[in-house]
Fold these 4 entries.
Entry 1:
Amino acid sequence: MDILITGLLLGGIYALMAMGLSLQYGVARIMNLANGEMLVVGAFAAFWFYTVAEISPLISVFLISPVVFFANWLIYRFMLQPLVKRSKSQGQLEVDSILATFGMSFILVGLMVAVFGGDYFNYTFLAKPVDILGNTYAANRLVAFGMAILIGSLLYLWLNFTRPGMAMRAVSVNPDAAGLAGIDVQRMSALAFALGGAVTAIGGGFISTFQTMDASIGILFTMKALIIVIMGGVGDIRGTILAALVLGLLETFIATVIDPGLTLAAAYLVFILVLLFRPQGMFGRKPS
Amino acid sequence: MNNKDWRNLGLAALGLAIAACLPLSGNGYYLTIGVTIAMYTVLATSWALFSGPTHYISLATAAFYGLGTYVVAMGIDDVPYVILLVIALGVGAIAAGLVGLATLRLSGVYFVIFTLGLAEMTRQVVTWIQSNWGGHQGNYVLTDITEEMIYWQLLAVAACVYLVGWLIGRSRLGFALKIIGNDEVVAAHSGINTARSKVILFMVSGMVAALVGAILAPRWTYIEPSMAFSPMLSFQVVIMALLGGVNRLWGPLVGVIPFTLLWEAVSISFPNQTLLLMGVAFLLIVYAIPHGFVGLIEKYNARFRGDG
């Protein structure tokens, strides 16, 4: 029971960061390997606001996310859009965007190490115990989980019941046809990329309330987000959330029962199973 | 073989002979740099054998290299060194084969993601196995193998890699891979078993990485998982190979030498800025020199000849 709840709480956070990546890859077609660094940027910012200005992460994430949104929009507009334009095929774009976002991720880590140093950082926020079904859990994890559900639902509703959301889904299904239907594909892609970055940074802000981080931890989060996105099916918010919960549960199970040092190995186990049996994602249909 | 092939072979042999004389200079620092350059040359060239024609970016080098190092670290007390090298080759081939079978049937993105975390995952598993059944985390590697011997071994491996690369380039397998890299659908329709060709070549590059790891193991006296499986190695190899250019067999070498020297200089003066250097190098490759130094050289060569 303890494993179940801890796992679900962890999975909720994973869902938040993976939703960002899912938007970026599903709509903007950019496999963003600097995604984890955006998360660390969000975490750093929340840490800074809390320790220096004593602003609660619950408020500061809403100050951070517009900045990150704009920064990601600039990155897409000026660094990634030229790659989209020059690429002749999806494969070429994938190779280029992978290398370019690797470059960005190293530069971000390098800058963060230069500015903040390579030390671990953490702070105490809402570390009060809360009792659920006889076991105690930290309040900050519950808050983070609640926020993940809130943002996930908002995103889902927005994508499915508004016009811009529908346009975004259309681009995700087929960019060429979406263009013919009068959708500004480039603008939608930039929007999706920026939105994805902002969602990931919000996730980072909440993760920092209970997890110790350092500047170079981003790649681990990228890795997990990638596995979740593939498992859930690219561009599928429902699938992403479910996949994140599955991964959270499995990781908690392996960390508790076998060894806490094997969490990435647990993620790989899921990854291999997905690749072997359902490479199109949990809800995906087989390509004909 | 025509005249041009003989000329190239002669040049390669000459270059190798000159390189082999380096330890005679008696300068320890040059030798250390020489070992590093030889190591990256072998790794980057064998990486380019697979990733050059297929455009699949492999980040698994560190995982195979670490496995090779670990084979030597665990067996050095009981098994002769030469046999350990052979075992490392086998382990590398098997590991690469398994990874290839799981991922290379699918699109390139899955492959990149899978290899991205592979070194870290292998490290976790090796650490776990060692702390549960091995009793201790690290191993001592005490041998009488000197730096010169490591250097010469690496040169010999480099010669083999160039030879194998040249043979593959002339074989049906090499031709198949070029078609796969251009258009996988076309390749499949012309009767090429695309998955098999990719897995075979990936195994070759995995074997070489494991062998290099095994050869370099005696350089350290004490080996623990976090040293053997350093994920940075994979990225360095990718940068060097792409910086040099992967469309020619000698391309990676053109990237390895300047980048290694630059890396050494930066890590001595600004040890915290190596990450920035890597980031900048990646962006350079994508935005400024997509075909590497070799592409630049060939472009200017063509212009020069066109004018004259």
Note: Chain A has eleven helices and two strands.
Entry 2:
Amino acid sequence: MTRTRTRRAALAAVLALPLALGACSSSSGDDASGGPLELTALDYYTDEPSHTDTEKRLSDCAAQAGATISHSSVPSSQYNARVLQQVSAKTVPDVVMVNNPDLPQFASTGALVPLTDLDVDTSGYLPSVLETGQYEGDLYGLAPNVNTLVLFYNTQMLADAGVAVPTTWPELEAAAAALTTPEHQGFAYAAASGTEGTWTFIPFLWGNGGSQLDLTSPQAQEAVSFYTGLATKGYVSTSAVNWTQADAKDQFAAGRAAMMINGPWQIPSLNATEGLQWASTTIPVPAAGDTPVAPLGGELWTVGRSTPEREQAAASVVTCLNAPQTQLATALQNNTVPSDSASAQQLAQQQPEMAPIVQTVTTAKALTSDSGLKWPAVDAALSTAIQAVISGQESVPDALAAAQADVEAQ
Amino acid sequence: MSTPASTLEPGPVDPDTQGVAVTTAQGAPRGVLRRRRWTMWWFVLPAALYMLAFFAVPVVNNITTSFREYTTATFYTGEAPFVGFANYVDVVTSRTFGRITFNTAIFTLVSLAATFVIGLALAVYFNAHFRLNAVLRSLVLLPWLLPLIISSAVWRRMMEGTSGVLNELLGLVGLGAVPWLTDPSVALYSVIIVNVWVGIPFVMVILYGGLQEIPQDLYEAASLDGATGARAFRRITWPLLRPVVVIVLMLGFIYTIRVLDIVLALTGGGPAGASDTYATQAYQLSFRDFQFGTGAALSNILIVVTLLVAAVQLRANRRASDLAG
């Protein structure tokens, strides 16, 4: 009798076991027991070869700091949720990668340590790159490599149409008009809902002296009118409202668009397209003599809050990850720009196709430099406004008034 | 447990088991019964823990979050000030609430109606006997087998304005191109088309099962009385299928109103919010804008709407089965 009951109880316990295990498996490797320090690192480089490359760089850097490191990668779509979950469980990794527009959000939690408190040397950095890692005056993250947006053009199409490479808005519009034929559009950009659509437009807003927080200003109105006008006049396909940057690249690579706004990460794919002759230049400015101001993209390495000893070790890993020699190697590998100004110049010499991008980076600004914590609101409001104008739903002033109201409401 | 079996069993019997059998047969002492009931609870425990961990905790959590100002900083500090109904007020008074309510209603009702009518037609069609029936029936299931993100990506390509295959086909038959995903007045319906395509197999399979349950002799008897075709459908098929129909509509409603992945993959809620629904907006608020409080408030509104409609449909079902019985 007893045996049967015990057996049943045991069976029930076995059934309940996975739940019990699931409930207590959230503990971390936080015990400090002798031996070398074991650090943790988290990023979203799940693709090969980035994952292995990063892992190697991390463990080399950890070894220099007299520590070991366990590295894990989470797909980018789940990344922020995972980091926030670890923040709430007080198990934030020692070395955390943060995508630059998200830095204000993560820094505002208080779970990251300002790198300035940890005596990290930042002397060689481009000022624009340091800006991307700042939140409320403190430096939280360092990006070894950055990217930005430039104008790509099909050299064959421009030559055939006898069009010079545009450098100003009027030239861009004239070129787009001349290059629009029954076979292809003159120009292409991503205007899909969400970050890619907004990001692509930001150089036009900033180039014209506008701010992400003042969308009803004349500068912003002009920028949106010019940008969306290229679509409403037919030089950019109105399908752009559903194009991501990859879609814009596909159009350009397939010869359906003569020019596009895009980033250097498309270069390998463009080079792999047979018969495509392309070049790139800085994004045209409103009038000759203006400075192009593009947004910087890239991933920052930050230090999670733990014990002083671990934080110090993590800071040396971050410094090492950002070493100039590593930067140049990475840049050559994945078409990014080193944050160190000397290495950046070296890259421009070694890879001439990267020169316009290096030049843009020197005058670029952090994507969230004027909006900070309000970036998600700006992002959603601005992409909706651009889509509303291109699809003919609203006029520029109405769309921007609504966008501004949305930004202020949050 | 196995009283009759063990008493009938010949040969040597495990003394423990037999002991249980004997006492139960004679009426077990209260202590034993209580212990056995206790053992029963051990079997309920896994299910109860599961429900608690994966249903009760998230729902309660979502409700409490919706009454708090919950930001990214909350994750670290744990501070989330109580704000009463402010999040709900924000959601309901926001500029887009009217539009997303309208979009959600159109999306759900049109999707459900179209999926149901087509699914029912296919179920009736496959209920007849003909060659290749099983093969064709399994082909119809195909949309169900594909991961949604993949089928949505393929649809997105097909619906592309200038190079999509749908517009090329329309061009071949001399019709103009349709701005499937790029015109605000069309985008929502394009998303509905894809959602209907995805939903048809589910409706068809369940209704087909229901049709198979209807005895053939009813139709034979009816045909002797001269009721065939549409009349047989109206008088026999429809009334007997009604309980299944109610279940299909209820599950279909629940599945449809919360559709997120298809919309995100096709349009991302655009252009200019033209295909935004409660589900996409709640996702945007919580996971893109980091406004967890208002996101939770909107998803609670979605849950309440779903529960209300489900309750109404269950009542309708009870009345239907009362009538049938």
Note: The first strand of chain A starts at residue 37 and ends at 43.
Entry 3:
Amino acid sequence: MLKIVFLSFLFGLIINAQSGEKITLRVFNWAGIYEIPLTQQIIDEYERLNPNIEIIYQPTPDAQYENKILTALAAGEPPDVFLLDSKSVPSFTNKHVLLDLNKYVDKLNIDTTQWFSNVTNIARRDSGLYAFPKGFTPMMIYYNKKLFDEANIPYPEFDWTRDDYLRIAKTLTVDENNDGKPDQYGATFINYFYNWIPWIWSAGGDVLDPDGSEASGYLNSPETESTFQFLIDIRKKYNAAPDVGTWAQSGKTGTLRALFYNNKIGMVLDGHWRIPGMLKYMDRNHPEFDPNYELNLGIVGVPKGPGGKKVNVMYESGWCVPVNVEHPEEAVKLAAFMSGEYASRIRSASKLEISANKKVTYEVVEQDKFGLEAEFLKEVPYCRQPWGSRIERFTEIEKVLQDAVDEVMLNDEPMHATMTRYAKTIDTKLFNIRENANFEFKEIEEHSEIIKFLIGVALLIFIIMLFLYYRAKGKERHQLKTGVFFLTPSLIHLTVFIFTPIVFAAYLSFHRWDIVVPDKPFVGLDNFKELFTDPSFWNALKNTFIYTLNVPLTMSISLAVALMMHKKLKGIGFLRTLYFLPTVTSFVAISLVWMWIYNPSYGVANYFLDLVGLPPLQWLNSTQTAMISVIIFTIWLNIGFQMIIFLAGLQGIPEELYEVSRIDGASAWKQFWHVTLPLLKPTTFFILVTSFIGSFQIFTTIYVMTQGGPIGSTDVFVYHIYDAAWNQLRMGYASAMSWILFFIILAATYIQFKLIGKDVEYS
Amino acid sequence: MLNTRKLWKKSGNTVIYGLLILLAISMLLPFIWMLSTSLMNELEVYSFPPKFIPSNWRWENFVEAMTLQPFGRYFLNSAIVSIMVVSGQMIFCSMAAYSFARIKFKGHEKVFAVYISTMMIPAIVTIIPAFLIINTFGWMNTYWALATPTISNVWGIFLLRQFFLTIPKDLEDAARIDGASESRIFWTISLPLSQPALATLAIFSFMASWKDFLWPLIVTNRADMRTVEVGIANFSTVYSTDWPHQMAAAVIVLLPIIIVFILAQRHFVRGITFSGLKG
């Protein structure tokens, strides 16, 4: 019945949307705010050319794009056309989520030769083509010509070698004030995958065998190891590259760029996406151009390997169409238009990427007054597709690889032993991934099973209520009626939005679900078994416990602050507001500020340490201090939050109790101990229980600041769950983990209730 | 004797002020940096050594931050959703909390335990089923989708329950003897008495809803249904951040919460006067 109501409601919406017999297509992409108008322009043009089509365009910020696509797929309502990142190609094509565009190419007269063939190939599987390529980039070395001129050395050329790179890096590294710390660095090196994979390939090495089935013998091969050594030496042996934290940290905060623009770094590895931000420093006609910051930029490909081989990597994205869309032909036509000549020309204004469309790219190269686009074009024939576009769940492998580099670079572990050990870890992971991928899914069209869960849960609660009602007698029954009456609103709400999802998660923990297809095969206890044999699970558990140590610390500080604030002093309202600021500020913004504060080479935290004569710390960038740094940030963030609750609790303590104890001559300390603390117990207990639960569920901070690194030292439970669910698409496994988490927190909370939860009431 | 005590109190106050101000400075520093960044141009943000005072105060950053995206609409959306959530939580949470703290029907501890235990499943696991439910209801792109999942909240129920427990029962019992119904006692006695707690809950639910981020993105398909926090995040991509505009937007978005905080603060500072309860 409920379902019919909803369906007819939905149907009503559809009819409304289709009035005028227009076909409506939905388009998703990730886009920054400067990119959105360009895409909108392309869409407007398409609507103008095709009056029977109406397009709903929905951009999403890049960091949340995958969540967005996956939830849409889970609901069985994917957009008609969406932008596909090369790393999503394997999981989407293996699960047959995407339409084979080849079947429409002839019929719709789409010219596939308009695109660079190796870019198109990224989304090819066997005879099928699953996306029309939009744009791509190889990894390039951006260099500051001014530093080269000052040092009087020639600019690097297309066929430069690794020796040239090292020589230049050393020459450009200068310690002007002779304090042992260079003031200008020649190069950079970060553990992130794309920073080193072209180097390894051009040395003839690799991280996996050609089939992508194992790492042993490749990750620990002499070619690969010597390349890692070469890159790490630039940072550690020659001190020719600064320590700017991880890729995410330096990328988001812009530390590398800051140094580059200020002539402090000679060479930086980056993709084409860096160009738009650099234009205002280069182009004298740019409205924001400032002659004090003029940048004389040069760009060149990654140097040749020791054997003289030239290989680069390319990252691509393209427009794809999911299977089962209502109007496949119209959608494919739109996808082709989005990657076509007109769209590419409009998009090329953004300079974010190289267009996959050859004609447009040649035009752009010709018109480029800085001569930089030509360097990108030269790299194209040497570009290989990244592992991520070939192997499902490669992001998981990437993470392990980055840990391996960190082990050697940050923790001084020996190269060969480390790589061999990590190669074995990867072999196991690859085996598991293959096992999981060999899976035939049943075709299911049904996406609304959640309603069955909802009805089931609601019925169950209703039956329990009836049962309780009939069991109760007389006054008890009356009390029950009143009690449940007061509970009803929240009970209904909880049933729909909390109980049902939780029961659904319980169901999932015995199933396999990869979100993108509706089939959820039963796997029994497999998820739980795998969990207990996974060392990273235990590591996450351990880290979560360590993190939880912040609870008593934060509570004591905020109680102390609340007690001071409780005094009726002048200006206390203002101070209180100040303390509350961290809690209320946009997390996105404030976490960025803190990442900048924690920067190991240039952050304010180390500046203060230096002021008081202490040695600098690595903060988020070392396995020893990362968790502590996260904890400090958490305390800073939560003091105001807890203070407010304590304050509200303190307000509830009758003033005369203090007066009585004052007359009795009790000291302030005694008052605190015998009046404040006991009467504050319900509040304290509340904060204890909820902060404990909150601590066990720490996620956003880790997600934004460390992604669980370095080397898993901040990988906490819920981040681990998030990773399994959203990055590895293993919702069943993630649900199993959350049930373990549930029982741990439940046990801990139970203990807290038993030990100190005895209700305090006035008698 | 009186003098030394006064002196003692005075110096005690000075120490307290000192400590509070010192800590407040550490709370404030990141904001000062945020504020100064919001007034710089990008080149200055990236200057090295870092600058704390912009050489050229670019107030237009604030105008640009608000106009580069439809922030007016975002503010409206956030405001509507926050008001829905705050009023919802005030009613739903206080009713449930009253039931647990005062009525104490048989088995209320067990029900309460079930309530509390729902806090233990992380939201990132329930987000997909919750989304599926909203989607089946046909609520995508509506304020209902944005607000309803948090319109009641176990955290708030727990918070209010704890406060109800600390309120003396005398008045209620007197009313009960006079034959007042539980609903009447709840509305006319318990709720007015728990003003500080309600103010606290109002602040926190407003704040949580104002700052919510992933959920609004998932249940809305159109830019005109987005909220302020999404707008702020839009200034960041994986590759880079538009520092000045992002910080300017963050500063502006902060203001309404501060105002709500200052307004609510009055309520819990005034507090309850217990003297009327005696006798």
Note: The longest strand of chain A covers residues 312-320.
Entry 4:
Amino acid sequence: MNALGFLAVTALLIVPASATVVLMLAPGYRFGARLNVSAALLSLLAAITLLGWRPEANLYLRVDDFNIYLIVLNNLVSFTTSVFSASYIAHELETGRLTPAYLRFYHAMYQALLFAMNLALLANNIGLLWVAIELATLITVLMVGLYRTRAALEAAWKYFILGSLGIALALFGTILVYLAAQPVVGEGLPAMAWDQLLAKADAFEPALLNLAFVFLLLGYGTKAGLVPLHAWLPDAHAEGPTPISAVLSGLLLNVALYAVLRFKMLMSANSHALAPGPLMVGLGLLSLLFAGLMLYRRGDIKRLFAYSSIEHMGIITFAFGMGGPLANFAGLLHMTMHSLTKSAIFFTVGHIAQAKGTQRISTIRGLTVTHPVLGWGLVAGVIAIAGMPPFGVFTSEFLVVSSTFARQPLLALPLALGLLLAFGTLLWRLHGMAFGKPDSGPVAPVQASILPMLTHLALVLIAGIWLPGPLVAWFKNVAALLG
Amino acid sequence: MHGLAFDIAHLLAGGMVVVSFLLLYQVRLFALINVFALHSLVLVLAVGWQATIQEAHHLYVTAGIALIFKAILIPTALHRIVRRLGIHRTLEVVGGVGLNMLAGAALVALAILVMLPVTTTADVLAREDLAFALAVVLLGLWLMVIRHNAVSLVIGFMSLENGLVLAAAGARGMPLAVEISIAFSVLIALIVIGVFLFRIRERFDSVDMQAMDSFREGRRR
């Protein structure tokens, strides 16, 4: 039974890696798109297998209670995004925004990104985690610059500089953690393995850990888009291909946050180290309020939702910073819900931008009349992301707010203010886009694949109404682990 | 640890900090690239020396990669880019040389004040190496702050990264040092290729980052 688990872990890494190579060599975008979808499906199946058969950890890879749900979520969203991408890319080819050569590159990079993210989540080693996140950064930089327009290149360059800076800071933090662990755990690989680190964290030099955590929070926080290190995020989301925006928002931000959380667990395991909570609460609130204010003036639909991603990363960081079973539970739930909802929104936005030929909000009016399916999809998505019932985001935001009110009423005020700001702005923007008077713009229907969007929204809706028992038990278990 | 081995390690790591200072006040692009090559060369010596005294043979690989990539290939490529793009003019430095040197000195003091108290349990060599490495990292950051030109931004980042490699080499028995330095080399190679292939000058008419920054949402289309 462990053999099956081992096979699944291997498949999670081998399938995307070999698909990358094949896609590099394979001509024809139709074949590329199909292979992309099938490879993502295979990875998803492997991830689901892991739920039942879990292999033993070794010094490099490990599957535990915490990362397994992120692995499943990651592969689920990559699969649905690959389905969306197939129809999106066909349209880009028709309009001539992309050439077949670029598409080949795009598909190969998509699988390479999947590989990097799976590796980061599976890693039992802080060095391997760092290498994987660095790889993911590089690949997304290449993807963001795919259109080769002036704006796309600027976005890619900005992301490159800020992303590499974050990566560099994170490496310094990683080295410091190793130095803290080395006298206790001993030299070599064990001093970089999560399980060993966690088991012996109490004996580490607390001052060294504190310093390391600051570097790690800033480093991986840059990748998670936390204010004031967020500058790359809106540009990268707006100028890259939309499937990549969906993967960036829905998955890569989660992976970066996962890294922060792992190190937070390490800090909590050491009784003399600085409490990481207040730092995270501060950064989270700052991101939430800043993004809430910035949402108001956005003129570009993808930028609007990129700022909304910063806002939600802020909420999640805040929740984990508060800590305790309830807030951690809310944070985990919100991570899942945001990932599903935001990628659904980007699927819709991608098709809308194609149908309208623009990303400017002021020229997108009356979608429910001109494109009913896309229009109503956008309405549902925005209502969900703004945190209205009956969607799952409401449940998690409600838990965050209520648990904060119970423990730190003063902190709940800025939290509620930020949530309301974002709520108001999003609905106001939505109103014009969905129900405004349609102008004489192009009304040509696009061949949209709406299945991915519907799947995600349905999942979020179900989670809002009824969370399955085993899932709740599992969330509770991990929330306790996170401390 | 016998005295001489320690002194040489100290000298080389300190040498990197000095060369970082040299980077701060270069006003010509070619000179900046040459000083960076020197920076990498000192790193190669420092890592090589660590490999010898720790008897960690994988560090020789790290030193070799640094020598080939960062002391030879990258500076040569950057020279070519600068010549090809015709940007070998004087660079403007924000704030002036004196102020930057003072700021640099403050950053080094900060690095020492931060690192020494928290590493009392680590052995002396790792401790001082780490303080120097953090100083190099901070000076690299500072270099990125005070320059606007894309090529000097890249050099600032690479000098910062040299500091990280120094830190990794100083941490006794740190695994994956080779893998990490390879990962970084790929990153840097891509940055350099990016500067070259994206033809930033062609698209933006200059490699001045401010010119790129002025181009934002709202003013577009």
Note: Chain A has a mean pLDDT of 89.
